[in-house]
């Protein structure tokens, strides 16, 4: 089902534990890409021929599928972007340029990926707004009291990660959203890590924006989602200008297209978005609940095995987390460990995980992170533990 998983790395069976960075793709996603290019490659919308009609229908079917996947009310609330990063930049630039004023405040958390820090810093600098950061404890748990104290009438946006990519910790987003709304602030949830593991219902969450990347939900790279509440998206100016996002252009004045096209200038990533629907179908058909149960079983098994290693310290060792384990080993640099593991066919991620401020807060240079997906197995965890033992013996 996942063809890449049968390959060898350095002569060993591949063990792929870097799923939080990107997930492998099921055959049906690869097939969808091929059948678009071999069967109905054409530019979408406005075409008056069969191929264009077929491509448009397949592309828009993905929008419907994403809408259902995250429980949005209307398909036009789903904007296609390059990825989580572009989705956040779109909101920061478009919403921020229209609605932020000098002295306004934006709240983020200490757990954020750089993609949910830098775009806010950029717009805050342009607008003279202030960025505030919710602190965490040593396990990566948000200090909710500090958050409550931080909220005030100047707070205009709260942009927080749903699940930390570096630690796997799940944030209490329902409460975060509720508290923000009580102060009249909008909320953006970075769902890059949560969308693949947790059930998402943006209507019951009631967040203004929810963003994620297709490549982390078993879909192609170059596909990103921005969900936004319709009334807000309608009030926001376009992010980029060009074809598709216009209604009428003259040299004197341009009127803009309706949602979602207002935010989709230029030819989009047609093939990859068409294939994203196959990825969502894979998750739906397998069942998010059964995937989560399987991943939780792997998480529990691996956590217990890792705890038996002396000198290994799990960071973010909390109950509310997804199948991500980040750890440090006393006296061992994560990069050295990754190279030795790779020599044994095991792919892990090491370093700061694009969360340098978090690493600074935790007083570490980085971690070794293993993360599990639907296709991982207990046997792979056993192989990993053996390889870890061997590697640590070599490094000492
Ligand atoms: N936010 C989080 C929590 C992530 O884990 C990632 C990617 O790892 C991103 C944002 C950025 O996603 P992308 O690189 O797909 O735009």
Beta-strand content bin: 15-25%
Distance between the termini: 39 Å
CATH homologous superfamily of the largest domain, by name?
Type I PLP-dependent aspartate aminotransferase-like (Major domain)
Count the domains: 2
Give the CATH topology of the largest domain.
Aspartate Aminotransferase, domain 2
Sheet with most strands: 7 strands, mixed
Which stretches are low in confidence, meaning pLDDT under 50 for 5 or more residues running? Answer: none
Which CATH architecture of the largest domain is right? 3-Layer(aba) Sandwich
Secondary-structure element order, N to C: EEEHHEHEHEHEHEHEEHEEHHEEHEEHEH
Word description of this protein:
The protein starts with 7 loop residues before the first strand and ends with a helix. The radius of gyration is 22 Å and the shape is globular. It has helices spanning 27-39, 50-69, 84-99, 118-127, 144-150, 173-182, 202-205, 230-235, 270-286, 288-307, 334-342, 356-362, 378-395, and strands at 8-9, 12-13, 15-16, 78-81, 105-109, 130-134, 155-161, 186-190, 209-213, 224-228, 246-249, 254-256, 312-315, 324-329, 346-347, 349-351, 367-371. Helix content is 40%, strand content 17%. It has a 7-stranded mixed β-sheet with strand order 4-10-9-8-7-5-6, with helices on both faces. Strands 13-14-17-16 form a 4-stranded antiparallel β-sheet, with helices on one face. The protein contains 13 helices and 17 strands. By secondary structure, it is an alpha/beta fold. Strand 8, helix 7 (202-205) and strand 9 form a beta-alpha-beta unit. Helix 11 packs across helix 13 (378-395). The longest helix is centred in the N-terminal third of the chain and has 20 residues, at 50-69. The chain has 2 domains: 3-17 and 287-395, Aspartate Aminotransferase, domain 1 (Alpha-Beta Complex); 28-284, 3-Layer(aba) Sandwich (Aspartate Aminotransferase, domain 2), CATH 3.40.640.10. The structure holds pyridoxal-5'-phosphate. Pyridoxal-5'-phosphate binds next to helix 3. Pyridoxal-5'-phosphate (PLP) binds at residues 83-85, 113, 115-116, 161, 165, 190, 192-193, 213.
